[in-house]
Design brief:
about 190 residues; mainly alpha; de novo design (two linked rop proteins); 7 helices; rod-shaped
């Protein structure tokens, strides 16, 4: 084997290694992008479930909360805004507003012992609590996938492949309102 043949083999092996790395990196980026889409779809399922529960909760409360019309309307408007939001940022802001309206609604419910004892209301409240937990879990899973993609898009050398194929950073689904981040106070009377 001559020196020229050996150099040719090394060059070909190097080119093959670079091509294989590029293909593997591209496939990893596509996989992460698809995982983000799937994770976002899971969030949308839970948000729709939440949006579907709210009218029933409000309707059940209407008969008891005659003097709280503005609170009920606030929840309904916040739900409408959240259901019609499209981008991750708009949805995040609208859902933060809806969460705030629901917190105020539930605080007022405390003033109505008959409503708190209503079996339909209790069942809906439990479903809403369960859904809120699912949303939190889905949001965490989505944000984890966004983090993985963003790392791959920004870190060397995969950022070269990401740039060549125009992969962009994912958008985190974050709480917008610092009040939503506060730990709730629990008081026993």
């Amino acid at each position: 084997m001559t020196a020229g043949t050996l150099v040719l083999i090394v060059v070909i092996a190097g080119v093959v290694a670079i091509v294989l790395y590029a293909v593997a990196t591209y496939n990893a980026l596509v996989g992460l992008r698809n995982q983000i889409r799937n994770a976002w779809a899971q969030i949308e399922v839970q948000l729709k479930r939440r949006h579907d529960l709210i009218p029933n909760l409000v309707e059940t409360a209407k008969g008891y909360m005659v003097h709280e019309r503005s609170t009920l309307e606030e929840v309904t408007k916040a739900r409408t805004r959240a259901a019609s939001a499209k981008s991750v940022q708009d949805i995040s802001q609208a859902e933060t507003g809806l969460s705030g309206a629901l917190v105020r609604f539930m605080a007022i419910v405390e003033n109505y012992p008959d409503l708190k004892a209503n079996q339909n209301f209790l069942a809906l409240q439990e479903e809403l609590t369960s859904t809120e937990n699912r949303i939190a879990f889905s949001r965490q899973a989505y944000n984890d996938q966004v983090l993985f993609l963003n790392n791959k898009v920004q870190m060397f050398p995969s950022n070269i492949i990401a740039g060549m194929f125009k992969f962009t950073l994912g958008e985190f689904f974050e709480l917008e309102d610092s009040a939503q981040r506060a730990v709730p106070k629990v008081q026993f009377s």
